[in-house]
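Researcher: Let's do a round of design. I'm pasting the structure tokens now; please hold your answer until I've finished.
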């Protein structure tokens, strides 16, 4: 029972601290959104809904705070928290954060539409899908990788809240969950080993991200670039299992990197 209380406390602390950062992040995006709506009100092409703005920006945000999360480890260890409790607590905080951000975004976006829907013209919520279908570079391997990374960051798998708000939140949550996890894994590799190892795990993270992108897009019947043709014959259950396996792999790597790492003072 005492052990559970420790990692629960870590989870609560990490969630509160990172949500405080998140409120600033969401608040800045909301301020930008208001400016865009004022400007867009005088333009025929309109403006993107708040949900779309957060959907795209949150990937980079979660990657950054995932990288920062490793630096909480020395603080907790110095205060008697085990590395295992740090890992479990941070993972639970990540789960909470990954759900909270999409829920807040969709709530604000709904209010935005209710209050200003007759005044401001909002672009089609499926704009991400329609643009994603056009990104497909086949010139060479490097071009494929660059194209895949750009697409995964700027145009990740997307479901319109208008078609299914539950599925939209789930996909949004999975996207940002993966970015945080990969950022955490990258920073843990640098912290545990050296720059060369860290760079190798940046490459490994890109591979995980690209594979996850293809698996999730195919399972949801979203526009899929030709590089993911290998997944087209697989059933959705297998594709989603593949996504879950990628998450487990990243989590296991993080745990291995942090379970007996020397604390840098």
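Researcher: That's everything. Go ahead.
Model: Designed sequence:
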């Amino acid at each position: 029972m005492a052990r559970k209380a420790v990692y629960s406390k870590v989870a609560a602390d990490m969630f509160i601290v990172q949500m405080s950062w998140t409120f600033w992040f969401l608040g800045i995006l909301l301020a930008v959104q208001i400016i865009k709506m004022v400007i867009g009100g005088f333009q025929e092409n309109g403006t993107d809904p708040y949900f779309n703005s957060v959907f795209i920006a949150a990937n980079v945000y979660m990657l950054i705070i995932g990288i920062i999360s490793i630096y909480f480890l020395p603080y907790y260890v110095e205060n008697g928290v085990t590395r295992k409790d740090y890992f479990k607590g941070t993972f639970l905080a990540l789960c909470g954060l990954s759900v909270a951000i999409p829920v807040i975004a969709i709530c604000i976006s709904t209010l935005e539409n209710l209050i200003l829907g007759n005044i401001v013209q909002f672009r089609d919520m499926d704009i991400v899908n329609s643009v994603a279908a056009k990104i497909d570079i086949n010139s060479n391997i490097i071009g494929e990788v660059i194209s895949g990374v750009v697409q995964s960051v700027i145009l990740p798998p997307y479901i319109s809240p208008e078609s299914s708000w539950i599925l939209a939140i789930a996909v949004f949550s999975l996207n940002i969950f993966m970015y945080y996890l990969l950022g955490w894994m990258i920073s843990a590799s640098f912290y545990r080993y050296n720059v060369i190892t860290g760079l190798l795990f940046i490459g490994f993270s890109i591979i995980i991200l690209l594979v996850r992108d293809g698996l999730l897009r195919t399972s949801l019947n979203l526009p899929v670039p030709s590089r993911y043709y290998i997944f087209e014959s697989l059933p959705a259950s297998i594709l989603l299992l593949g996504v879950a396996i990628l998450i487990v792999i990243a989590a296991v790597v993080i745990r291995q990197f942090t379970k007996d790492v020397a604390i840098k003072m």
